[in-house]
Amino acid sequence: MSRTSLRAILAVLLMMTIATKTQVSANLSRDKFTGNVLDVISAHRLSTYPVPTRDLLPAAARIAAPGCDGTIDVIPVHINLQEAPLFDTFVKPNSTRLFAFLDKTWSSEDRIGMRLTWLRHRLLSFVGLGHFSNSTTGLLIASPAGCAAALAIDWAPVWRSQPATEDAELIGALR
């Protein structure tokens, strides 16, 4: 390999490193993530209950939705779903589970789908077209059987790079 080719490869690697550091947005802190979840819930005019404190699988929010026979629990989980063995312990057996991450929602556990969604948005962010933060935290939404309130919520603003309050204002303006 010639010196010119080697220098060109090293220059491209250096530029890609700089571009990655400037284009990829920062990861969300736990408090910011929880705040974004609460902003999305309040934008849909739903009320919340106090969240029980626990070390394993702490909930971000507990929602009181009209027409539901119980509360909807919104629990942050890693997109690899490494917490999956704990789901049966903390989620009621007859609950409907949804998994939300960025702009997608799944009705069952889908590690590969979540990882591919993360990769797609990471690549979009790399080329400057990303709209979401660099987060590997998804949501497990557990709602009582027959409760469709969680399906009506657009969870994507939780991960948006712009503040969730701006999305809440947009949703409010559209109603």
Structural account:
With 175 residues, this protein is of the alpha+beta class. It has one domain. Helices cover 39% and strands 18% of the residues. It is built from 5 helices and 6 strands, in the order H-H-E-E-E-H-E-E-H-E-H. It has a 6-stranded antiparallel sheet with strand order 1-2-3-6-4-5. The longest helix is centred in the N-terminal third of the chain and has 21 residues. About 3% of the residues have low confidence.
Low-confidence stretches: 163-168
Radius of gyration: 19 Å
- Spatially, the strands of the biggest sheet line up as 1-2-3-6-4-5
Give the % helix. Answer: 25-40%
How are helices and strands ordered from N to C? HHEEEHEEHEH
Main sheet attributes: strand count, strand direction, barrel closure: 6 strands, antiparallel
Give the end-to-end Cα distance, rounded to a whole number of Å.
62 Å
**Number of domains in the coordinates?**
1
The helix/strand class is: alpha+beta
